[in-house]
Amino acid sequence: MDIGGRTVSTWHYGGELPAREIRARKGDLLRVQLRNELPQPTTVHWHGIALRNDMDGVPLLTQPEIAPGAEFRYEFTVPDAGTHMFHPHVGTQLDRGLYGALIVEDPAEPADYDAELVVIFDDWLDGTGRDPDRVLSELKANGMGAMPGHGGMAGNGGMQMSRSDLLGGDAGDVTYPYFLANGRTSEAARSFEARRGSRIRLRLLNIGGDTSFRVGVPGVPMTITHTDGFPVVPTRAEAVLLGMGERVDAIVTMPDQPLPLFGLAEGKDGRAHVLLQPGAGAAPDLPAAAAQLSARPAMVNAIPAAESVRLPNRSPDVTHELTLGGPEPVYTWTINKEVYDPARGFPVRRGERVRLRFNNTTTMYHPMHLHGHTFQVVGPAGPGPRKDTAIVLPGQLLEVDFDADNPGQWLTHCHNIYHGEAGMMTVIQYVED
């Protein structure tokens, strides 16, 4: 695959990076036939969709792995409109080229924009002399100090680690040589053409393995309209922070001259962009433009949900404490001091209002993702956004509520692929009385 001035060997869906976008309408029955031509077993997870449990793509928990040479048909109804994505859920496969956007449209939603731009941001190392499996093996063997350019834990080399005050300290465990927007580096960025002054709906997705992105167009404010597919109170911002697995929809006005829509790798030295091209004009000075996004971006956990999608006011029937721990010993990330076991989890009953209390005792942020549901962030001033993935900052507590209305065995985990594969996963288990 050509990622822009460099050709890498990687795994992909159908020869494209990102994969060809899948579009459906709310309420559609979606069928996808997967043929596995990889050298490993695989599955597909439909990130953000409240689908039937046996289609969720989690090996051992919801389906057997799809063996090399085998096929599997995914078939489910897409109940909610929104910006979602698909990716594997076996090992570190997510940190290769296996991903794409799943856009579910609502015909009843007003189209108060002139054009639409879908952008997937990614961190990239596959095929550059390293691959994600090797990275995870080195982390498990030696801790974060095993990574080039990363000091990691005390005594493991003392080199400078990625840091971000916005993320509460450590910004990542892995050093990436490239960052991509829609499969291309900034040196060979894709362009998006539209007439100046037109209203553009941005659908912004972070599929990165270990990197949050600060996303924005320098000097052009955005109006955030959705988080993880669900509408919020429209919020004006210069930029927005996207953790791994998060999605944001926003409206921007097409500028008069070419400008980059940046994804700046938060706490890391790197960037990716798509060039907004209204017509003729000088190419932008990318370093100068990137410097304009230095102000604090919007943090989506603080944006209230739109009234139409707020959960009914109700006290939780059950509260589960999920204490996030790690990375000791060596490189082990835990929930309640235990690593992932698909046979063990947190019981819920159909019809309950469930509260999850994510208590982050580590020195790194964790974007926690719940399968099969959307939750509502419990904010200090009232209902927060509806989401399925939310950043829990180091040393902080994040509470989220959801209604137990989709029976099954549902994974909840850190969407840092290396944290999840090193143990930071558990199961929300529906049980019967």
Task: Please give the structural blueprint.
Blueprint (H helix, E strand, L loop, with lengths): L21 E4 L3 E7 L9 E3 L23 E7 L4 E6 L12 E6 L9 E10 L7 H11 L20 E2 L4 E2 L7 E4 L9 E3 L5 E8 L6 E4 L5 E6 L2 E8 L2 E3 L4 E7 L5 E7 L5 E7 L8 H6 L26 E8 L8 E2 L10 E3 L4 E8 L5 E5 L4 E5 L2 E6 L1 E4 L4 E7 L5 E6 L2 H5 L3 E6 L3
Parallel strand pairs: 1-6, 7-12, 11-19, 20-23, 22-30
Antiparallel strand pairs: 2-4, 3-5, 5-6, 7-10, 8-9, 12-17, 13-16, 13-18, 14-15, 14-17, 18-19, 20-21, 23-28, 24-27, 24-29, 25-26, 25-28, 29-30
Q: What distinguishing features does this structure have?
A:
single chain; 30 strands; 3 helices; 38% strand; Immunoglobulin-like; six-stranded mixed beta sheet; mainly beta; 433 residues
Describe the structure.
The chain has 433 residues and is mainly β. The chain has four domains: 22-105, Immunoglobulin-like; 115-125 and 178-302, Sandwich (Immunoglobulin-like); 132-170, no CATH class; 307-430, Sandwich (Immunoglobulin-like). It has helices at residues 132-142, 286-291, 417-421, and strands at 22-25, 29-35, 45-47, 71-77, 82-87, 100-105, 115-124, 163-164, 169-170, 178-181, 191-193, 199-206, 213-216, 222-227, 230-237, 240-242, 247-253, 259-265, 271-277, 318-325, 334-335, 346-348, 353-360, 366-370, 375-379, 382-387, 389-392, 397-403, 409-414, 425-430. It is globular, with a radius of gyration of 20 Å. The model is unreliable at 146-159 (pLDDT under 50).
